[in-house]
């Protein structure tokens, strides 16, 4: 009986041992089967075999481009809204608004480089009082900007502008490793102006240079007429009957009016230009009866790159680097993205704080 009992337990123990082995095997094999079964659905979004917290950045390191998209908050004046625009799209919008699309490709490239440099410097300093969270407006207070939807030209011209922007993508103009004040204007009087002679702030890379190409501009010369009363009101002076407007006038290195005296009042050339909305501070004026006739040469403040000068240089076979180095002295054209990366980091911090 005892033997029978022992024989009766032996098959039971064997079945138990087999069951334990099978159960253990299932515990070991099942997770692996599940991984094999579902790993294909994770492809392209980070599978369990790839470290999600350490994405592959080799392509970014080779290109030198920032990890995140640089977005420019632009105040749209007409709509009274703030629009977030990707950096290169913003540059294309400035080029399309600021320079004629029929200009030479190298001139458009120079304009793209200047526009990008302007906004990168604005990103760093952002000292202007712009509504909302914007850092720049879409008016002449900064740079005129229009979106692709607002473009009224043809598709071919727009493609040309986009090609100019893409050809200089990521490049900025620097002086001592910092973005320059990338000022530009339409038409010179044959020379650009020293920064200190117009803004009273000296910048070593914004000094007067010759720009003979501008004579082809339709606004190289212009004539404006004002009543004597209008000029007196705008300048806050009384103009004597025998006033000689050709005397008591001093000029700058760029051959614009530095100062002029009317009666007992002295004015800077910029003051006259802005008060009377003249094309340029290079002007000659005279009285004809009850009118003041003013002849100007050039269009704009005259500091930095002349757009018609850039087009003239391009027509002579100069490339955009030649243009930049002519109008801005001792500068570098750099594809260094450290300034843009710093702005992206600052933007991300602000978003996290909010």
TrEMBL record:
Keywords: Membrane, Transmembrane, Transmembrane helix
Acidic residues composition-biased segments: 56-68
DNA-binding found in the keyword field: no
Keyword ATP-binding tagged: no
Residues annotated as domain Sporulation stage II protein D amidase enhancer LytB N-terminal: 76-175
Superkingdom of origin organism: Bacteria
Transmembrane regions: 16-38
One Gene Ontology term, aspect cellular component: outer membrane-bounded periplasmic space
Protein name per Swiss-Prot or TrEMBL: Stage II sporulation protein D
Species whose genome carries this gene: Natribacillus halophilus
């Amino acid at each position: 009986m005892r033997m029978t009992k022992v024989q009766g337990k032996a098959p039971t123990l064997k079945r138990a041992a087999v069951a334990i082995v099978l159960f253990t095997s299932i515990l070991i094999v099942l997770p692996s089967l599940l991984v094999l079964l579902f790993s294909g659905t994770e492809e392209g979004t980070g599978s369990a075999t790839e470290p999600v917290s350490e994405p592959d950045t080799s392509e970014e390191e080779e290109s030198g481009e920032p990890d995140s998209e640089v977005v420019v908050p632009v105040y749209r004046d007409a709509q009274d809204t703030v629009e977030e625009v990707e950096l290169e799209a913003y540059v294309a919008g400035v080029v399309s608004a600021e320079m004629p699309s029929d200009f030479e490709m190298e001139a458009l490239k120079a304009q793209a480089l200047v526009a990008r440099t302007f906004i990168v410097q604005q990103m760093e300093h952002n000292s202007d009082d712009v509504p909302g969270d914007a850092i720049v407006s879409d008016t002449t207070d900064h740079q005129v900007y229009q979106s692709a939807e607002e473009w009224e030209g043809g598709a071919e011209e727009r493609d040309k502008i986009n090609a100019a922007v893409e050809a200089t993508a990521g490049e900025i103009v620097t002086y001592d490793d910092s973005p320059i004040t990338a000022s530009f204007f339409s038409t010179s009087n044959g020379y650009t102006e020293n920064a200190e002679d117009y803004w009273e702030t000296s910048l070593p890379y914004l000094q007067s240079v010759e720009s003979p190409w501008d004579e082809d501009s339709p606004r190289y010369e212009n004539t404006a007429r004002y009543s004597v009363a209008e000029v007196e009101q705008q300048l806050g002076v009384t103009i004597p009957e025998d006033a000689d407007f050709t005397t008591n006038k001093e000029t700058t290195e760029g051959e614009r009016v530095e100062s002029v005296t009317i009666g007992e009042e002295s004015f800077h050339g910029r003051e006259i230009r802005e008060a009377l909305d003249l094309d340029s501070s290079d002007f000659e004026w005279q009285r004809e009866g009850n009118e003041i006739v003013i002849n100007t040469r050039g269009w704009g403040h005259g500091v930095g790159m002349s757009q018609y000068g850039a087009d003239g240089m391009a027509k002579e076979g100069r490339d955009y680097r030649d243009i930049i180095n002519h109008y801005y002295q001792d500068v570098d054209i750099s594809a260094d993205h450290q300034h843009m990366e710093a702005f992206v980091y600052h933007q991300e911090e602000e978003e996290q704080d909010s």
